[in-house]
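Inverse folding, one chain.
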């Protein structure tokens, strides 16, 4: 790590009880990551024709492993991390403590949720994949566990809203500090987005799994799922963007480029992340083509704030690189602090995310989607988004946040730099395999190692997937080693004592239209209106068909 970071200038220090609870939240995230990585390795090898499932004690099917992989990585790791990260940043930005009861309750709900869903998955009572599409039916503990995971995010959001509300009472005429603003907007968006899946689970799937409801409507639940689950990908991404916008500039010696642009990008995510879910359902019957086209259009809309982010973040990196002596058109890139593991992991996150963004645009294109839908291309896409931008940013943040929360120095920082490179290189090989296999019709969610059919071209694609996945696994094992050693043997000195909060080139305007950006309630109302336009026609004209009993196939 670079030199220890300075104290919060206001003298604020997060209370120890809250630090401890946030530390446990990070701990759950890393344990989830471990379970996810182990099963990811088996999935990758399956594409290469190698079956290692029997080496996992207690694992009964490919789909059991794939469910564990998806749920732990996508639903537990991401939210366990954000539940700690975003409130911690809000507290720091506002220089005031959080509500200790809510910090603990957030952790408690997450831990109970993970225990319940974990039991269901490990007992092979919930091999329904992370999308849990009906009519595949899981044990009630799986659904209840997921509800508790969502409740934990609501508690974290409530904690941030209350902390911000209390701050605003005392600072009526001031602009909300940027870091608090973007952290709160991220979870405000997620709170809105999470309501449809809550309706799906509490209204249908949970009573159905308990036998209180005999049949469910698969299309209705699928639609409620994607209503939430397109936006969920931005709930995973936005904490990474918070780090790229507001923390990384400080870490590379640059400044955040524009306060207003940053707030504007987050407002666009609040407005456009949710009314786009039909782009996962282009091939579903029962949804009008007009509405699918409308969601396609808005998907191109939500692409825009990510483009703006790409330019803005690159500009701040360039500023940092030049301040460190970088010359010429690209000389600043090599001058960035690549030797700081927190920075290198996040720079690699950004670089790999460029490919994730491009593949996303292809998915979103209505007709091209027909070529890639349900093929290995899709996991190719999402490993270059959630598996890179989000994963590597979580890793990068962890490299300063675990020392910050525990007071212990990061173990083997040079190895940590190598770790992120190994993972990123593995990821690119792995995703290249999936993407090319997908273009040749290789299906996703299929146990290729035991498939009785194959097509020319799948061999190379599968081999690359297996090789890349193995390299990623090695990278992650090094990460777990570094974390375990930091926690267990880390020395109590040299750890950063403050969060790396960046300065902005432009200070927030105190007069004029920009002040309206801080009216979060107004933006939430506009977001709800857009959601009604995008989803209203479907729900108003849809007649519910409770037709399907539950199936337990694996
Ligand atoms: Fe996606 C499917 C469209 C982004 C995750 N996506 C998925 C699935 C997942 C997922 C998990 O329209 C599969 C779901 C399933 O199981 O079925 N996605 C998009 C689009 C974007 C996008 C248009 N996806 C994400 C993100 C995810 C994610 C982010 C997780 C975090 N996706 C789709 C569609 C489908 C889909 C369809 C359905 C496909 C189907 O048929 O099933 C965009 O929003 C992406 C915008 C991104 C960019 C890149 C910006 C780059 C930045 C980095 C800049 C830094 C630099 C570094 C340049 C525009 C910000 C400089 C550094 C130096 C060192 C110089
Ligand atoms: Cu999506």
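Residues assigned per position:
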């Amino acid at each position: 790590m670079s030199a220890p970071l300075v104290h919060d200038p206001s003298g604020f220090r997060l209370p120890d009880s809250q630090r401890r609870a946030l530390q446990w939240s990070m701990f759950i995230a890393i344990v989830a990551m471990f379970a996810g990585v182990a099963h990811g390795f088996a999935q990758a090898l399956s594409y290469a024709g190698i079956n290692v499932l029997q080496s996992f004690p207690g694992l009964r099917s490919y789909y059991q492993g794939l469910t564990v992989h998806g749920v732990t990585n996508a639903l537990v790791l991401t939210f366990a991390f954000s539940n700690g990260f975003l409130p911690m940043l809000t507290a720091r930005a506002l220089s005031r403590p959080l509500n200790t009861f809510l910090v603990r309750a957030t952790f408690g709900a997450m831990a109970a949720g993970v225990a319940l869903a974990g039991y269901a998955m490990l007992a092979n009572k919930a091999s329904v994949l992370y999308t849990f599409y009906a009519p595949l039916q899981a044990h009630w503990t799986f659904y209840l566990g997921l509800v508790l995971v969502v409740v934990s995010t609501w508690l974290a959001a409530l904690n941030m809203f209350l902390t911000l509300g209390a701050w605003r009472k005392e600072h009526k005429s001031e602009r909300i500090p940027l870091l608090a603003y973007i952290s709160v907007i991220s979870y405000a968006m997620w709170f809105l987005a999470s309501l449809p899946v809550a309706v799906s689970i509490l209204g249908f799937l949970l009573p159905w799994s308990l036998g209180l409801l005999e049949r469910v409507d698969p299309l209705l639940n699928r639609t409620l799922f994607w209503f939430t689950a397109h936006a969920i990908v931005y709930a995973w991404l936005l904490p990474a963007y918070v780090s790229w916008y507001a923390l990384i500039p400080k870490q590379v010696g640059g400044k955040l480029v524009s306060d207003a642009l940053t707030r504007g990008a987050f407002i666009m995510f609040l407005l456009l992340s949710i009314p786009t879910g039909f782009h996962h359902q282009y091939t579903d019957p029962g949804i009008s083509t007009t509405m699918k086209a409308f969601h396609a259009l808005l998907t191109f809309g939500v692409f825009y704030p990510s483009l703006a982010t790409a330019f803005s973040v690159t500009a701040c990196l360039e500023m940092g690189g030049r301040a460190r002596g970088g010359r010429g058109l690209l000389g600043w890139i090599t001058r960035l602090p690549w030797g700081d593991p927190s920075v290198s992991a996040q720079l690699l996150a950004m670089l790999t995310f460029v490919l994730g963004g491009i593949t996303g645009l292809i998915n979103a294109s209505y007709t091209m989607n027909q070529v890639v839908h349900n093929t290995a291309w899709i996991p190719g896409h999402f490993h270059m988004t959630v598996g890179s931008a989000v994963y590597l940013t979580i890793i990068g943040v962890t490299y300063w946040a675990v020392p910050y929360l525990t007071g212990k120095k990061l173990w083997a920082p040079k190895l940590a730099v190598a770790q992120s490179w190994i993972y990123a290189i593995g990821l690119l090989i792995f995703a290249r395999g999936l993407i090319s296999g997908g273009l040749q019709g290789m299906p996703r969610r299929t146990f290729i190692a035991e498939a009785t059919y194959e097509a020319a071209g799948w061999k190379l694609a599968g081999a690359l997937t297996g090789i890349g996945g193995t390299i990623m696994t090695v990278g992650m094992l090094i990460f777990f080693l570094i974390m375990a050693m930091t926690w267990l043997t880390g020395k109590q000195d040299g750890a950063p004592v403050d969060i790396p909060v960046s300065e902005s080139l432009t200070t927030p305007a105190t007069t004029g239209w920009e002040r309206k950006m801080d009216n979060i309630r107004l933006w939430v109302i506009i977001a709800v209106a857009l959601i009604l336009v995008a989803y209203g026609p479907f729900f108003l004209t849809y007649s519910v068909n409770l037709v399907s009993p539950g199936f337990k196939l694996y």
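Residues 1-6 have pLDDT under 50 and may be disordered. Residues 131, 233, 236-237, 279-280, 299, 302-303, 306-307, 309-310, 313-314, 317, 333, 347, 350-351, 353-354, 357, 360-361, 363-364, 369, 373, 378, 381-382, 385-386, 390 surround heme-as (ligand 1) (CB under 6 Å).
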